[in-house]
Amino acid sequence: MSLPPLRRILFVDDDRAVARAFALTVRPLGYEADVAAAGAEAIRLARTRFYPIIVTDLRMPGMDGLTLIERLRPLCPATAFVILTGYPELDLRASLMGDGAISSVVRKPWLEEELEATLARAYELHQRRARRMRDEPGPEDSPPTVLLVEDNPGDADLAAEYLREEYAGTQVVHLTRLEAAIEYLHNTSVEAVISDLSLPDARGFDAVTRICAAAPGVPLLVLSGLADEDLGQLVIQLGAQDFLIKGTINSENLLRALRHARERKRGEQRLLQQAQHDPLTGLVNRAAFHDRVTVACTRARRGGRRFGVMFIDLDRFKEVNDTLGHEAGDALLQEIGRRVEAAVRDYDTVARLGGDEFAVLVEDIESEGRVTELARRILDAFALPVRHEGHDIAITGSIGIAVHPEAGRATADLLRAADEAMYLAKQSGRNRMQVYASHGRNGAGTPPGQEVQLAVARGDFVLHFQPQVALPGGALVGVEALLRWRRNGSLLGPGHFLAELEESGSIREVGMWVLGQACAQLAAWRTAGAPSLRLALNLSARQLQAPEFLSALQAQLAASALPAEALDIEISERTLMLLPAEANHRLDALRALGVRLTVDGFGTGFSSPAHLVRHGIRSLKIARAFVSTAPTDLEAARLVRAITGLGKLLEFDVVADGIETEAQHAFARAAGCTHGQGFLFGTPQAEWSPLM
After folding, report:
1. End-to-end distance of the chain based on CA atoms, in angstroms?
2. In a domain, 21, yes or no
3. How far is CA 445 from CA 416, 433, 436, 457, in A?
4. CATH assignment of the domain containing 650
5. Domain boundaries, position 312
6. How far apart are CA 50 and CA 69, in angstroms?
7. 507 and 501 in contact (C-beta within 8 Å)?
8. For the whole model, what pTM was predicted?
9. Of 184, 194, 196, 207, nearest in space to 255 by CA
10. Last-in-domain residue among 135, 163, 180
11. Is the Cα torsion angle 114, 115, 116, 122 positive or negative in sign?
């Protein structure tokens, strides 16, 4: 039986009964409705998946429908919006029809015929907008709407005059205070902001940090009367795209700076897109897939919806690389990605997890049978050989299936269940599917939520070590301890078990074991001939907040006769930004001990230089997604150079993480990175030694 192509739309209404009625009404009309109860939830959903149509109630607590549309338009430029209202005295049609993003207005309660016609018109509008975006040039030369925040009337008039000279019809909104600008940005969409650094109600760098937080997708130009190069560099590190000195501004350089700011901001957004997608296939990557499964779990808890997760592993893919070369292997992976996408529904999520592993998120299912039907389609799609340069490449796949809630209710449980089912499919002869059984490990063993805890008890975790080197010379300076799990003959990285360790609380026990093992090993290496070697350890928020952590750390350092500066604690940028006050005190205590603090994955969050300095950070480790693409991607290169510039300004070390090629190595050296880590210098190994 073939599956009908249902169009995915988003419905926003704070009345759950209305939302359920809408979803039931539109399904026979050929639509699947995701439901959000408030504007903030709608924005989160729109960031995780694309909706050709968004229908929103007009009056809701907090954010009304029109404000929501204003917020969503920059995020969803091809989406058609429909207003839903239960207030018959309002006639919105005449006032809204001039807005090309809004398709129509529908009354509550709706008539099915009227609703069907409205959604059809909205979908046609979406298709027209999507075609224009594909076929027409970008908006680089279109008149921008600019917010000008300047308390000096003369400077404001001059900047507005320059803008209007260059772009006829430009709307320049002039405000004199930061609070008014923040409120305006919360309620209105603009294409750029030009702001004085010094405003009557702003202290320090408030004008930069607060505008960037209020409108993270909008380019910002900062004006200042101080000709200070270090000040300008710091402003850019805080999030601005350019820094201009008053008194030197003319029409030409202001407009050039504005164009460049818009280009840089688009580049940053492309980098974010790249960070969530696999560069070879264009599919979402492991991190983005994990996020979408988490969103699906949240929706399932609220609405009782079922969904499934599939893990797909290609059978004997290594033989293709060995016999035909990596180019043929890459072509095969790209074709497999296309076939999997074609086999599933338009709104299912297909991801490449890495290597020859793919995954599919199958949402809104009535039964397990819907997932197995799609899995059968995928296996059938693999039946036809892939032709590459005269060779017919035969390929099969093994598919593991986990269904929520039978296989688990948490993201970590579902992913682990799908992974285990996939291994069972492989062991059963390949080219087949295996569904994870709800009562345990497919009929025998323990539920996925208990596996990690049993692994802790059995001692199945091991440490691997990867070297860190100084740049440009390449001298060994440190080593990072990396946790691995030996399970069913495989060696799994933290992505397979870290969430479960956190959720179960076992992270504290495992963390203490890691600390003891790593310190003992470092002491042995320093005694044997590497006296200045440093050890890097990753620390989670839960570990940092554990009451016993600081005393245990001091005890381990004393027992191993290690100085505190030999230890480098790595904390993710997200963890640093979200730490509660009591955990911040522990960071201060670590700094007082002399332990080095590093921000891991730097560049993926929005931490400020002031935040870094306040917590005694000594080192920034650049996210590997940016290091890997910097030699060939201009925007990634700019970001890496900006981070190294910030590191130099604040006198931090800067580590380029994930260096795998000579080109990446050369770029990291040229950009000014002080240290490097990655497969080029050594793969993580249990038996690694600095004396080899």
Report:
1. 61
2. yes
3. 14, 20, 12, 16
4. 3.20.20.450
5. 286-445
6. 15
7. yes
8. 0.46
9. 194
10. 135
11. positive
